[in-house]
Amino acid sequence: MRDGGYADLRGARGLGAHSGHERLARGLGWFSLGLGLAQLLAPRTLCRALGMKNKETLVRAYGTREMMTGVAILMSHDPTPWIWGRVAGDALDLATLATGFSRDNPETGNLTLATAAVAGVTILDVICAQGLTSEKSLGGADHPTYRDRSGFPRSPSAMRGRASEFKVPADFRVPEPLRPWDSARA
User: Fold this and answer.
1) N or C: which end of the chain has fewer CB within 10 A?
2) Cβ–Cβ contacts within 10 Å for residue 96, how many?
3) What is the 3-class SS of 50-103, one letter each residue?
4) Which of 127, 130, 94 lies closest to 112, judged by CA?
5) Model confidence band, residue 186 (pLDDT cutoffs 50, 70, 90)
């Protein structure tokens, strides 16, 4: 702990001390905003370039998803679940692009290029998500472990038998009239 704060125990970082995966997540958040904006503003142009007719509404929906994910990544203290959401969205994008590969699509070259680009971003998303998840796990180097501690000042064997020499002070003893009745007192 640098200054005695609890945040250091949790593994939270201060400003400017973000890991490489957190910086990548921030970059992917900005990328999501840009891609989502393009999908919202020009779905017809994107569909025409990919040879995917009548998919404009779907592209707009994907753009909305990208925008919301980008905002969530940038606003969240922990972007990990949102990056995993990007991975799921990438799988959906790849499945949608795969439907465009047909013999009557004149834009298969553009579609192949777009599919390769989405696959590349998917790899970045997976790397980022796995890195953030491993940093967040309790087994990470940033988190202290207390497995070797018992809570006692000495080992149990060093403390065993210590109380046998203890003499109870007179004022701690129960007065005779208040002691439990037993057959020896009768």
Assistant:
1) C
2) 16
3) HCCCCCHHHHHHHHHHHHHHHHHHHHCCCCHHHHHHHHHHHHHHHHHHHCCCCC
4) 94
5) low
